[in-house]
Predict the 3D structure of the following.
Amino acid sequence: MRQWHVPGLALGVVKDGQVVFAKGYGYRDVEHMQPVTTRTVMAIGSNSKSFTVMLLGMLAEDRKLSWDKPLRDYLPDFQLWDPYATRELTPRDLVTHRSGLPRHDLLWYGRAFTRKELYQRLRYLEPTTSFRGRYQYQNLMFMTAGYLTEQLTGRTWDDLIRERIFTPLGMSRSNTSVADSPRAEDYALPYAWRDSLLVEVPFRSLDAIAPAGAINSTIEDMLKYLELRLDSGRVGDRRLYQASTEARMQAPVSVSDGAGPDYPELGPSTYALGVGVTTYRGHKVVQHGGGIDGFSSGMSWLPHDRLGVIVLTNLGGTNAASIVSRYLYDRFLGLTPVDWVGRQKKLDSENTVRADSVRKAREAERKPGTTPSHPLSEYTGSYEHPGYGRLTISSTGTGLELGLDSHRVPLLPFHYDIWELDGRSTAVPISGRVTFYLNKKGEVDRIAVPLEPALADIVFTRVPR
């Protein structure tokens, strides 16, 4: 926590059906020095995905869906860019990151679309590979999985999660919307580390994308969830789902990209249904991380060793959860601990050098002495894309600003009609350069914005004044 300036952390361990450790460290509210406890509510981010998969598994047991039937059997209006993917994609494909789509996170993050509107806009999102071509982490397909549960049952995803998972497990302090967290008497504020300062991050609604990452929980509640997974669907003398469903949920489907360092302790990376599956020093591990707006979490269990670990923190973008979890594996398995802190420090240093090199190379591309081809007023206005919706370019008096729903980003002249997004003052998820294009009359009529790193810039067409 000192090394990576983590304000608060909660840690829980379950072994052989018993909670053997649960404790809070640091502060849930730094200014008022309110301590983290085992009952402190924090966002679990993408660890929400496994809850959505569990709900699908229950509905499959109820014979409301089949994992491998085309999704259009249940959602006739489902449509992607690729006609083949539209026709063949199944519920299993939704939760294994093999739709062919890259993330396209700026369609939902900080946006005003409803869940249904996001679903309807999927058809306008360009893929980067063929259907089932390769693993690509993707939140919108999990949103679609949640939407599917609603269409099958006539109930909201949120109500189904509460009724079929939270309530029978006694997860009484867990919720599905950040709007509910401040109502708890013990909840954490989200933080981020910017320009050598720890700053509080505003709560942001994730309701539209909730099935992919909006659950908030506590160490006490999440330990109950881990026990359920380790007991293959059984809680006490009651069974929430069959052991065969648990086996299916943790059976690898996709080979992950394995973009991290190649360490001998870690086995090949695979993705099952809403969870990753690998090995740690020869022991099978089922795991997932979560990170959203000032929170980071790590959930994992070793099925054959009957060991589960949950780590919640109120700092965005930290690797503390994976480091703490691996250290605990070493301790509980009786292995000589690996210096994961030292390895991560070295990796962070290398990444800093690499990022600085990239920044300098991009800056060297600037053509000095150039100016925009038109007065600033001729760039302003609204621009539209059928999927991403509408963005605005407005004048600040001395420059331009790009607006995309809740996102506001200053634009700095780079050269000619290319401007650079300036996110230094705020943590905006949009970076890079935007390009204004002219029609044959010499009028500004399009803008290309780097909203999806895996694709060419997304082109928005000017809306007539």
Notes: The CA atoms of residues 54 and 249 lie 8 Å apart. DSSP finds eleven helices and 23 strands in the chain. The longest helix spans residues 340-363. The mean pLDDT is 95.
